[in-house]
């Protein structure tokens, strides 16, 4: 298998479901911020979530945005099943949920019968390379209604070795803190260390991960025609930004 053929596996989906409660910094705050940003843009129509994973954000969108459908797309069967199950168990139910298996790099899933009110994604767009992100941002601009918002949470590429070192230390600190506050011990942090997830410490990246810098994201979003491109939160080499289709 060549580097470019490397695909996210179901084993990685299972590991992610085990470790992400520790490994995703300020996860609850991130979800609340994304939902608020979508809600503030008066998202009353359909919302797309790209690579929904196990459906935590999906369930929050369904619960807090009472109108419109949520299109939750992902490439993993087990993640899509987890998303459907979580939504079915949530107070909002799953009547407005539409799931679909996709390859994020393909473009066939980016066309919708009606313009979207919002598009969101968490920790997945970094699986696209630079040109892939540019094309995605242009396709999302085309898919959104005027006034529609794109909210992106993702890992970014620090622009310097010093930036990588700071991101690595901050990420360890965040995971350590989450393990202690969730479980009262460091087992979750040790599992994160054993899994060697802190790629800011790696000399070379896994070819499945292709993070770009914050500035590149801003440039590509503006090039696509987005306005109000804004950074809302960042720590440990991970950011949340939003951009509006005028
Ligand atoms: C790091 S997880 C993030 C999941 C979730 N959005 C979250 O924030 O917890 C990455 C997700 O991207 C999905 N994924 C990875 N590569 C993909 C691809 N080529 N096409 C579609 N989905 C992909 C995985 O199945 C997984 O659900």
TrEMBL record:
InterPro entries: Methyltransf_25, SAM-dependent_MTases_sf
Keyword vocabulary terms for this entry: Methyltransferase, Transferase
CDD domains, A to Z: AdoMet_MTases (cd02440)
GO molecular function: methyltransferase activity
Keyword Transferase among UniProt keywords: yes
PANTHER family cross-referenced by the UniProt entry: TRANS-ACONITATE 2-METHYLTRANSFERASE (PTHR43861:SF1), TRANS-ACONITATE 2-METHYLTRANSFERASE-RELATED (PTHR43861)
Protein name: Methyltransferase
Source organism of this protein record: Thalassobaculum fulvum
């Amino acid at each position: 298998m060549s580097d470019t053929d490397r695909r996210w596996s179901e084993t990685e989906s299972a590991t992610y479901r085990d470790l992400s409660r520790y490994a995703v910094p300020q996860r609850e705050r991130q979800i609340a911020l994304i939902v608020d940003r979508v809600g503030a843009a008066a998202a009353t129509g359909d919302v797309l979530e790209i690579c929904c994973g196990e459906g935590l954000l999906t369930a929050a969108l369904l619960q807090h945005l009472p109108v419109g459908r949520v299109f939750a797309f992902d490439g993993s069967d087990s993640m899509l099943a987890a998303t459907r199950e979580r939504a079915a168990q949530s107070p909002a139910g799953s009547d407005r949920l539409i799931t679909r298996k996709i390859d994020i790099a393909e473009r066939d899933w980016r066309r919708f019968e009606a313009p979207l009110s919002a598009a969101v994604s968490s920790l997945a767009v970094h699986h696209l390379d630079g040109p892939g992100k540019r094309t995605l941002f242009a396709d999302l601009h085309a898919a959104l209604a005027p006034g529609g918002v794109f909210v992106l949470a993702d890992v970014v590429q620090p622009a310097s070795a010093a930036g990588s070192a700071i991101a690595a230390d901050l990420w360890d600190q965040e995971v350590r803190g989450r393990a202690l506050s969730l479980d009262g011990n460091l087992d979750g942090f040790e599992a994160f260390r054993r899994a060697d997830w802190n790629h800011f410490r790696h000399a070379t990246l896994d070819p499945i991960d292709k993070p770009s810098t914050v500035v590149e994201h801003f440039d590509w979003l503006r090039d696509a025609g987005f306005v109000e491109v804004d950074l809302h939160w960042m720590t440990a080499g991970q950011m949340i930004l939003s951009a509006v289709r005028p």
